[in-house]
Amino acid sequence: MTSFACDADILIVGAGPAGVAAALMATSLRLRTVVVEAKQVGGKLHTVSTVENVPGGWSTGPQLAQALAADLERLEEDHRCTLLRTHAVAVSGHEDHAELTLDDRRTLTAQAIVVATGVATLTPADASWVTAPDGFASPPLWRTSPDTLTDRTYVLGADRPLGTWLRAYPKAPNTLHVLHPPSDDYKTDEVRDDERIRLVPVSHVTITKPTYGEGWVVEVDSRDGQRTAYAATAVLNNLGAKPAALEGLLQEEDGYCPTDRQHERIRVAGDLRSARYQRIATAQGSGAEAVLACYYATMLQPSGRGAAR
After folding, report:
1. Domain CATH code at residue 149
2. Inter-residue contact 19 to 270 (CB < 8 Å)
3. pLDDT in tens, 249-273
4. What is the pLDDT of residues 149-158, one digit of tens each?
5. 305 lies in a domain?
6. Between helices 61-77 and 17-28, what is the axis angle to 10°?
């Protein structure tokens, strides 16, 4: 083992599906494990209305989140893991250890760190293809009940929660007009055949308040240069997510953090890796795999060190 006096064998940042899977794997390897989570265990699972592609018979995200919380509680009660309720801001890798900086300026050290901070929700202000008034609030689709909608509901973006929403409300009669830029085209395949969806490819969308009445005016610039104005009773947010990367991680142009670009003592798991990997099941697998990669690369060497970069 390394001679550096570490606070833990492995630090795990984030307690969503990837982070909890990492903690379960780490403790099974008898590693001193610390999980850092600023908010609630389960992360964005609390906003997922239906779960279909995850083993275990879970029907909703909150049910799975509750199970993950129970897993961490069990590990804590067995003194196999410590859960720190604090916010991490930066990470760095060194020859014989890795460091995690917290927002109170404390620094935690470990032989390796798994970062599973996931993603944050994009807002219309983040989308270059949307122009909206200052302070415009677009409620998230995944938190919207169909009984509050009309057939003049417009959805910004074709991110995957659209398919989740449709499966959660199979009898919802509403027609959703889904405005999506070219970058979302590949996401539309799983909902294209649903009769409740009207896909509207766009190059730009401008949202304004009408001169009279309620709702919104949605002006759509098509990809062939035509402009059409629609009267919308509601405009919902389904723009997708942006990576919640810590300072010190190496990022691609889109902000995501491929694990193969990081320092050997730092691994990235879950949704933070790529927009195309945002699935609960792949997040769980990547969390466990990240711990195993750290274990074999940095903890089984005779000196306790890997070939640090």
Report:
1. 3.50.50.60
2. yes
3. 999 988 999 999 999 999 999 999 9
4. 999 999 999 9
5. no
6. 30
